[in-house]
Amino acid sequence: EKPVVVIVGRPNVGKSTLFNRLVGERAAIVEAEPGVTRDRIYREAEWSGREFLLVDTGGVVAAPEGAIEAGIRRQVAQALEKADLALFVVDAGTGLMPEDRVVADLLRRAGKPVLLVANKVDRFDPPPALGEFYALGMGEPLPVSAAQGLNTGDLLDAIVARL
Ligand code: GDP
Ligand code: MG
């Protein structure tokens, strides 16, 4: 069947915005506030003649401190079970956050191929400073702006190259 590409990351990094951008429609709900329960959303996507299933994840339940981490952990683990490739989205605007390390640990444990995506790079001049994301041990971050559609063609190239 079609390869499965799962978008993961802590809340509010722009996963749903990226999902919508990559499938070319507003299928996922974009929330200004993190902590809203959402189901996983699936859409077929195609690039350079390669078809794949793209999966958005969210569903981190608003909860007392500490429980958010557990929510991320559970959902990412479930989504990754059927994944052929994970898009690990981080926020270039906020920089590296502790929850990013939680997601990175889960991805390492799942043992699936990962593409690190630095979202919210809304301008490339001057070049974005993404050096801190190397600390995640997920290789070179690929800068995009999901909201503005910047560099998302390069991201799609990188996705299909790994499938
Ligand atoms: P999710 O929780 O990871 O699914 O994040 P959302 O897609 O719901 O986006 C969270 C917030 O980030 C929303 O206010 C989006 O409009 C904003 N956002 C998403 N992508 C970008 C981007 O490329 N640039 C900027 N500046 N904001 C973005
Ligand atoms: Mg979302």
From TrEMBL:
Highest taxon listed in the record's lineage: Bacteria
Signal sequence region: none
Domain EngA-type G: 3-163
Organism: Thermodesulfitimonas autotrophica
Coiled-coil regions listed in the entry: none
Family: Belongs to the TRAFAC class TrmE-Era-EngA-EngB-Septin-like GTPase superfamily. EngA (Der) GTPase family.
Function: GTPase that plays an essential role in the late steps of ribosome biogenesis.
Binding site for GTP 1: 9-16, 56-60, 119-122
Oligomer and partners: Associates with the 50S ribosomal subunit.
Identification of the protein by name: GTPase Der
